[in-house]
Predict the structure.
Amino acid sequence: MRIAIDTLGADLGAERIAQGAIRALDQSKEISIILIGDESILKPIVTPKIADRVSIVHTTEKIETTDKPVMAIRRKKQASMVLGYQLLKDGKADALVSCGNTGALLAGGLFLSGRIKGIERPALTPVIPTMQGPKIMLDAGANVDCKAKFLLQFAQMGKIYSERVFQQTNTRVGLLNIGVEPGKGSQLYNEAYQLLEDSLDGFSGNVEARDVLQGNYDVLVADGFAGNILLKSVEGTASTLFGLLKTTFTATLASKLAALVLRKPLRGIKDRFDYHEVGGAPLLGIQHPVIKAHGSSDETAMMNAALFAEKFTKAGVIQAIQALNNEEE
Amino acid sequence: MRIAIDTLGADLGAERIAQGAIRALDQSKEISIILIGDESILKPIVTPKIADRVSIVHTTEKIETTDKPVMAIRRKKQASMVLGYQLLKDGKADALVSCGNTGALLAGGLFLSGRIKGIERPALTPVIPTMQGPKIMLDAGANVDCKAKFLLQFAQMGKIYSERVFQQTNTRVGLLNIGVEPGKGSQLYNEAYQLLEDSLDGFSGNVEARDVLQGNYDVLVADGFAGNILLKSVEGTASTLFGLLKTTFTATLASKLAALVLRKPLRGIKDRFDYHEVGGAPLLGIQHPVIKAHGSSDETAMMNAALFAEKFTKAGVIQAIQALNNEEE
């Protein structure tokens, strides 16, 4: 399986992104890596030992985080991300991993890969860390203006993803809301509740934002605006609290010694809520496997993302989403 | 100043709610307390020493958390919350504090107190704890389907509240959003951004959910759905993390000893994010001072809520909101 890696647009720089991705070669014998980016940086990384499993597609054009997504995708025809989509379309790569501009990656999904027939809106689908292990949530921000039908499709796609990639059985699909009772929330959420209750096997009702980390669901569905607010506030709160803890633990000699004793379990808590540990978020509903990795991914995160891309592609999520809509017709 | 206390509907029970509220009498010589609830429980609490400053309005009817808000407000005419609103309307109380059903309190605001002329939607306005101290945010869940104009009015009311009650100067009003750049977010948020930029002195732009706890704003504006998701996920994340820390700290003898050293600073962090420390959330945009206290308020929280009701009422927020709309016409 050929995994294309967009090495431009990540916080850490192309060299470390490429080095991380290459580490995946040791973990899986079935993959090869296509590095898209500046040849002069990437070539020295490709040692003779791995040369037969790594190729380079040269470009120096990059989509900046400040670029307007749709315009960037349309005009920057040599951008690493655009070339990545081109490899997928030409059948020269089987999956694409990018840490770049999320909006542009989503726009590329729509305009370069294309929606799966019958799917109205592709959704960005990250993992959310909970007390009951990682769960999946969608949409995390691809679609800020949603209709109830989109949310039903998110639920259907999320369920397939959860079952095929995470081997989930008896999948419970929850709807993010401001209360647990039916009838809570905005008009959109009332309609979505009804639609999910009528048409989705496994719908388990509303999930309050307060209970999201308890993880009493397998797939959490929301519109992209509320979903993004949820994920970012969980992330921001965890990061603020860990920052405060660090300050506390290093304040005095006594607290430093005490913190030493607690270091290992605290590390465990932190890792549990660390988005860097997670492989990446697929864009569900498009024709090709495209994985968004965190902009601040380090080497380990990139290795995980490349391996995750393989796992995701093998799991046949895209074929199952295609079949879903054939069934309906 | 006469502060009416709805003693029914709180998690802790009428007796402790009343005892907490009464503690406020020691803190402020200018207030008297009207306890609304079951006489047989409340009478023993009113000792001769405070008898001239505490009166009881007897009722045993209660709005349950499971009651439908509008129906409950309309049909349960002897409910403690409804009697509280009646005291305000009859000029027999100056402010009302309730820990009861939030939806019913909001419905009471609309149907029993009434909107201030020109205000389209009253908003629930809690404090949000941040690294730069407590800030205010609205709407926290009263209005789940909003128009851009509502958000502008939330901003105007929030600004008045922040300036009059918290003595804020050069008030910065931020708009909750999924990115900082103009043009981010849903259609509603794009329109609201434009409207705030055109009409609100002190508008400081979008605030990402991830940065909310950094507190680089004084007033944070959102629709009630996203606002509620934000607050509840901050609350849920903090509570989950503190729960995990507690488990870690009590796991072994060594960790217990270490935790002992860190107890005081950790307590400090916890208090900072503890919603119980906060006096309460006023319902801005209605004719009378109505303060929602947390359903799980303890005695200290109720004392704080009663004192906060006095402070809020004295600050003339309602008069300023009334004047705001006269100016516009």
About this structure: Chain B touches chain A through 55 residues (CB under 8 Å). Chain B has two domains: 1-119+285-329, 127-275.
